[in-house]
């Protein structure tokens, strides 16, 4: 465990100016980023008595081996630089306010030619408009069921959409007029997008004008004696009003605001946000995060949350809907940050107009803030009930593994390798990474096993281990010219395989463990522990030991190792199925000279199937992007006899 005093800056070298600082571990990886009005005061606090530090802060400073800082001229610059560094380095000890995947949202895929409405859980993506979150997925489906009567946009998956386009018949929703059926050409792309835009406009709060327009149209149809059309409009107005009843007016003045509240203890905090647009609650989001530093009040949490959350919102806003501002006019918080003026200036820059950050004092806004605070407290209570002892359990698991395997320190970074194949064919392997007992999916890797494929699992494990740690040694020994050794200077992101694990786990018993251990010894890697987890009796094998280590069935350490092994198995199986499926889809097109994978994929995507491609003529094939008359003729030659080609020409 590194001693913070070994890398503490010399007395008087830390400036008193405002700036941004970052702690790095022994491999040069940035593990924490922060900002301060006075760098000297803030950084000196990290090198005080360890026993007085917050537990997560203590873990961070003992994991780090270096600290660097950058001086800036204003607090606004510090906010922007801190946000950019957190996004660039993804430090493990920084709180990341990512959208809670527990709550479903209504997603509108505006980036597609025919946008789709569907239930979605996951991180926000560019080109997609989101409404919600909702408390239950069925609430979204009820909303869609009501609104698709008025706005018949497609809700089917891309596979279903393509399939019905190929067979030339719409699905049931198309027959009952709850979908405009763009798959069979009832409406073109422009008409369908107009339907979707009306749908998003309605959910964005522009409801009164839309209902008034529909009422005028209903009256006009009645006067023209078109009673069936008038009745349909009447039903549509009723459906819209029923959907509106689900969104209660909370602010009568039509305010656009986000209301933020926190509930916290010494180690964790729950964040709750209500998005109010046009006076109505349009969505709600929640997070539970681990705190890195001890904060007496909510001021520091408010600043961190607003910086990261609205920075992410602004980054994702452009391609989805330029008319919707990522930052509202007003943000109501429980406590003002220390430098609220700088924060307000930064948020106003993101919005392009003035933003107010304030504490609600009285009236409807105060009552709504109290409601959001009660929701945050309830969410925090439920989190504690669901994950009671979770932090303790993860720490206990790492400690148990350390003691059972005789390691020098707790394995904060665990990597696991698994091999997948069918009777020796399509041999692939996966590498998964767990840090602090949690999966770090951005660092997962996949391997196509080449040399070791004929030697069974043992040879495959040896090959993957050799390739993984050769890359690590190459990254470690690469000249850096004084730059951060773990960061690629071209992309600004962590280099692949740049950091070694504390524990390297293989899926298997003694032979697989010995193979991996021999490779590490051959490469001169001596600071990585190796073990294997055998499926049959869940035995842990160590290199050179004739007998396995048996962990109790109720052990948190065994449970963590099982999760790591099962995740590696899942990742390997998924890759193997993808590769096998790709191999088995070989068709008549594979032998066409000059037709590579990209153009073959473009052909199948354009026509939908080989059957429709066979029905196409030379001109239609040549019109596909990337194709030409010569390649189109070669495709026809592969799909038809010579007489068929002459007949078509």
Question: Could you outline the blueprint of secondary structure elements for this entry?
Answer:
Blueprint: E1 19-24, E2 30-36, H1 39-46, H2 55-63, E3 66-71, H3 75-89, E4 105-108, E5 117-120, E6 129-131, H4 137-147, H5 158-167, H6 172-175, H7 189-203, H8 208-223, H9 227-245, E7 257-264, E8 268-277, E9 280-290, H10 299-317, E10 330-332, H11 340-351, E11 356-358, H12 363-386, H13 390-405, E12 413-422, E13 425-435, E14 438-439, E15 445-448, H14 456-477, E16 503-507, H15 510-523, E17 529-534, E18 539-541, H16 556-584, H17 597-607, H18 610-615, H19 618-622, H20 629-639, H21 642-648
Parallel strand pairs: 7-10, 10-11, 12-16, 16-17
Antiparallel strand pairs: 1-2, 1-3, 4-5, 4-6, 7-8, 8-9, 12-13, 13-14, 13-15, 17-18
Helix pairs in contact: 3-11, 8-9, 10-11, 13-16, 14-15
């Amino acid at each position: 465990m590194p001693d913070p005093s070994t890398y503490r800056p010399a007395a008087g070298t830390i400036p008193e100016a405002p700036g941004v600082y970052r702690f790095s571990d022994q491999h040069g990886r940035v593990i924490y980023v922060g900002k301060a009005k006075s760098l000297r005061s803030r950084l000196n606090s990290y090198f005080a008595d360890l026993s007085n530090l917050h537990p997560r802060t203590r873990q961070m400073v003992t994991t780090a081996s270096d600290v660097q800082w950058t001086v800036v001229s204003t607090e606004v610059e510090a906010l922007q630089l801190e946000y950019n560094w957190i996004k660039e380095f993804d430090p493990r000890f920084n709180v990341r306010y990512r959208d809670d995947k527990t709550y479903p949202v209504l997603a509108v895929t505006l980036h597609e030619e025919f946008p789709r409405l569907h239930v979605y859980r996951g991180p926000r993506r560019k080109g997609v408009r989101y409404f919600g979150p909702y408390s239950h997925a069925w609430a979204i489906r009820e909303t869609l069921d009501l609104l698709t009567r008025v706005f018949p946009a497609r809700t089917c998956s891309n596979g279903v959409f393509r399939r019905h386009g190929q067979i030339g018949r719409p699905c049931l929703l198309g027959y009952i007029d709850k979908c405009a059926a763009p798959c069979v050409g009832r409406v073109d792309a422009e008409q369908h997008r107009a339907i979707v835009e009306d749908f998003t406009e309605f959910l964005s709060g522009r409801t009164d004008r839309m209902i008034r327009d529909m009422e005028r149209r209903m009256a006009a149809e009645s006067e023209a004696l078109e009673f069936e059309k008038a009745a349909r409009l009447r039903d549509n107005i009723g459906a819209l009003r029923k959907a509106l009843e689900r969104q209660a007016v909370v602010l009568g003045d039509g305010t656009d605001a986000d209301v933020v509240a926190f509930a916290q203890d010494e180690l964790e905090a729950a964040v709750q946000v209500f998005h109010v647009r046009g006076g109505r609650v349009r969505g709600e989001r929640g997070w539970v995060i681990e705190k890195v530093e001890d904060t007496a009040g909510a001021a520091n949490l408010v600043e961190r949350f607003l910086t990261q959350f609205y920075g992410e919102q602004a980054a994702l806003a452009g391609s989805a809907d330029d008319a919707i501002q990522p930052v509202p006019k007003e943000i109501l918080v429980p406590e003002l940050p220390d430098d609220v003026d700088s924060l307000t200036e930064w948020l106003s820059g993101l919005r392009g107009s003035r933003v107010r950050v304030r504490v609600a004092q009285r009236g409807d806004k105060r009552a709504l803030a109290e409601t959001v605070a009660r929701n945050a407290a309830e969410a925090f209570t439920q989190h504690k009930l669901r994950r009671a002892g979770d932090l303790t359990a993860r720490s206990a698991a790492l400690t148990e593994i350390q003691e059972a395997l005789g390691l020098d320190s707790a394995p904060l970074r665990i990597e696991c390798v698994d091999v997948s194949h069918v009777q020796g064919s399509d041999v692939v392997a996966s590498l998964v990474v767990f840090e602090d007992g949690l999966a770090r999916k951005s660092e997962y890797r996949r391997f196509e096993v080449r040399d070791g494929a004929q030697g069974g699992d043992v040879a495959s494990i040896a090959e993957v281990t050799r390739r993984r740690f050769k890359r690590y040694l190459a990254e470690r020994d690469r000249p850096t010219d004084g730059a951060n050794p773990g960061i690629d200077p071209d992309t600004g992101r962590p280099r692949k395989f740049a950091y070694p694990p504390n524990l390297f786990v293989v899926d298997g018993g003694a032979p697989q463990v010995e193979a991996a251990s021999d490779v590490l010894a051959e490469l001169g890697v001596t600071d990585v522990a190796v073990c294997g987890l055998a499926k049959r009796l869940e035995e842990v094998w160590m290199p050179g030991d004739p007998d396995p280590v048996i962990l109790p069935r109720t052990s948190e350490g065994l449970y963590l190792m099982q999760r790591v092994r099962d995740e590696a198995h899942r990742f390997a199986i998924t890759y193997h199925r993808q590769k096998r499926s790709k191999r088995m889809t070989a068709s008549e097109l594979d032998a066409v000279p000059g037709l590579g994978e990209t153009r073959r994929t473009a052909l199948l995507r354009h026509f939908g199937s080989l059957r429709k491609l066979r029905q196409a003529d030379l001109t239609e094939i040549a019109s596909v992007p990337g194709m030409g008359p010569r390649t189109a003729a070669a495709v026809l030659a592969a799909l038809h006899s010579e007489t068929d080609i002459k007949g078509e020409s």
